[in-house]
Amino acid sequence: MKALRYSKPKEYSIVEVPLPEVPDDYILIKVKACGVCGTDLHIHEGEFIAKFPLIPGHETVGVVAALGKSVKGFEVGDRVVADNSEVCGTCFYCRRGQLLLCENFEAHGVTMNGGFAEYCAYTAGRVFKFNNLSDVDATLLEPASCACHGLEKIAPRMGSTVLMFGAGPTGLVLAQLLRRNGGCRVVVAAPQGLKMDLAKKLDAGDEYVELSRSNPEEQFKRIKEENPYGFDIVVEATGSAKILEDAINYVRRGGKLVVYGVYSSSARVSWPPSKIFGDEITILGSFSEVYMFPAAIDYLDSGKVKVSGIVNKTFKLEQWAECLESMRNKSAIKAAIVFD
Q1: Cα separation of 71 and 85, whole Å?
Q2: Are 30 and 65 in contact (CB under 8 A)?
Q3: What is the pLDDT of residues 205-249, one digit of tens each?
Q4: With 90 as the cut, is the pLDDT of residue 272 above it?
Q5: How far apart are alpha carbons 216 and 14 in whole angstroms?
Q6: Which end of the chain is more exposed for a tag (fewer CB within 10 A), N or C?
Q7: CB under 8 Å to 309, separation ≥6 — which residues?
Q8: Residues 136-160: what's their mean pLDDT?
Q9: Dihedral sign from CA coordinates of 14, 16, 17, 22
Q10: Which range (97-101, 264-268, 309-313) has the least confidence?
Q11: How many angstroms separate the Cα of 6 from the Cα of each of 11, 52, 97, 126, 334?
């Protein structure tokens, strides 16, 4: 089969590799589409938790091509999405029920081979059926499951006010989830352009603040002036350490600051401990997900959370360089590799 494989960071090629083996409890998926996100840019650079050599692709959508002999509940041809996470079940954290903190955490497309290939294999317990979404829109199910995990971590109180910095794909999903689960007023603050236009089209927020790309200080000042008590929940979803550092200044006393973007491993922030202490601010991190695909499918496949238009560019495997560039120059809100 054809696959995109990295030998090491920044060095990749289109190669022919054997079909994955299909053990008794595995499902072989014929890939129809696989999403591309900012994490893939970090993987390209050798950051995040990537291991090489690697076939990337952690947002895999396709149809069942073959079943291991012990698999039940699936048929060849079923439309499915795959959860990319794998946990060991035996380490210190897994035995405490904190599976996402697994010391041996693996992820298809990050530390093990993923969906930038014509076929891939997953344990049946990590494969889920869906019905209504297009293959391309279904690539949002993995980011949406991360957003569902974020929602559970935030645990918003009824009537919460929310400030979301950033209008990227997973932020737009989380904003919609917050509106449906305790957030009575969600303000989306992001630069003018494609993503903000899409945020409005998807009805992701109650209010929108379009930030100047050259000098957003006036808009930041206005947010503070119009919200003198701040917000119950502030979500930093841009991956900018500079914005994250300032985000604490928008958090209401007793509120929560959510570290939700993907940041460079060298990024650092500085916050006054006295403010965190005196205002009783809770700082939360939200990374990946486990067991949230059913919730994500319920929200997206039903149309309660809208994702149409988030993937605005599609590419073939052979166009990987072009795909990477579209992510770098931000002409792609979100991209996907498509087959057939």
Answers
A1: 19
A2: yes
A3: 999 999 999 999 999 999 999 999 999 999 999 999 999 999 999
A4: yes
A5: 42
A6: C
A7: 198, 201, 202, 333
A8: 97
A9: positive
A10: 264-268
A11: 6, 7, 34, 24, 21
